[in-house]
Amino acid sequence: MWWRDRHSAITFDVGAAGLRAVQFRRRGARTELCDAFQFELPAGGGASPPDGVDLATIAHAVEQGHFSGRDVALVLSPPDVQFVPVRVPPQVLAQPPERFQQAVQFEVSQAARRGSEEMELRAWPLPMAGPQQPNVIAVTLAAAQAAAWCAAAEQQQLTLSRIDVAPCALVALAARTWPPDDTESWGVLDLGRRHTTLTLVVGRTPAYIRTLGVCSHDWTQRLAAAFEVPLDVAEELKRRHGIRAPERGVRAGGGGAGRLVGDELAGACASVLREALRGLSAEVGRCFAYLQQAFPEHAPRRLVLSGGGAGLPGLPELLQGELEIPVCLLAPEPPAGPGATLLADRRIGVRNAAAVGAALLDLEAA
User: Fold this and answer.
1) Counting Cβ atoms within 10 Å, is residue 286 exposed (0-12), middle (13-18) or buried (19+)?
2) Beta carbons within 10 angstroms of residue 364's beta carbon
3) For 2, which DSSP code?
4) Which member of 220, 244, 261, 315 has the lowest number of beta carbons within 10 Å of its beta carbon?
């Protein structure tokens, strides 16, 4: 039997830290990585973060990589998309998908005081919502913005075939690596350079999505100020040494990072970032407590870290100690079965996890 290859769209995650692109193909029962492309912007000095989605840059990346076709997809995060919890009459939940979407769109447009034609909207019901609680989550995007991206893609001889949202893509990818029970609650913390998003999940359903007041660039700025070094040097110190507690303590006395060596730098970084990291863990803990109020039978089981900020050495251990639940990186481990070699590729990791998850969702929908 001859198998026709199926390809995902070339899926782009565009953020303040850079550009990431991933494409998969399916040959029979086997899923393979076509290519993965990453372009990182420096932490400070020189280049500026991209202002929104630049389709010309995306077209250039398509030409540079070993990708197939001209179909592209975008992965968006807040504030480019908005997540809105709403409550609809229970009978709406049993309506066909099109009627369900229309009813939710009416509720969201009423709350936002915008016409339904001004927004693109997708929604999903929440499991076991109480009588006074939101029973649906909607995600919205300005329709004019989506139309502008489609037109810009067409000018670059590309077809914008799909728009995904990072929280859902990350949840889908994490669920492949650690398949949850239907009654299990857990979370994904996406630590970006400018924005951090926490997604709390019941089973496989995103149930609570919130943007937190912390970002990895803030950590870099704190280190740069404390050690009196440029931002790019502070970023390198952060990535290399992290916040692991030193075995012998930190030397007393003044001076910048140049006076410290080895694990002393990790201890110094931990001291500088201690307040910010404790604030992060407290915020995550409050969100888990809120979810448990809505779903009291579901104690949190796991927190999964993704995004560039998740690569801070020592962060999983710190959060695990503060939250008292397992904390791990979404650096995908190979699952059993035909996809065993898929996620073991060294080009796939915590930084491009959102693009990976969205590309796999697109391939499954093909």
Assistant:
1) exposed
2) 13
3) P
4) 261
Look up residue 245 and give its two tokens.
């507690």
User: Which residues fall within 8 angstroms of residue 345, CB to CB, at 6 or more apart?
Assistant: 33, 36
- Please name every residue paired with 14 in a beta bridge, in sequence order, or none if there are none: 19
Q: What is the pLDDT of residues 190-230, one digit of tens each?
A: 999 888 999 999 999 999 999 998 889 999 999 999 999 99
Closest CA to 353 of 120, 89, 132, 77: 77
| 309 burial via Cβ count (<10 Å: 0-12, 13-18, 19+) | buried
- Residue 315: both structure tokens together: 């962060």
Pairing relationship of beta strands 30-40 and 119-125 according to DSSP bridges = unpaired
- Given a contact cutoff of 8 angstroms between Cβ atoms, the answer to whether 358 and 73 are in contact is yes
Report the distance separating Cα 196 and Cα 215, nearest Å.
Answer: 6
C-alpha span between 134 and 125 (Å, rounded):
9
Q: What angle do CA 133, 139, 144 make, to 5 degrees?
A: 145
What sign does the dihedral 227-229-231-235 (CA atoms) show? negative
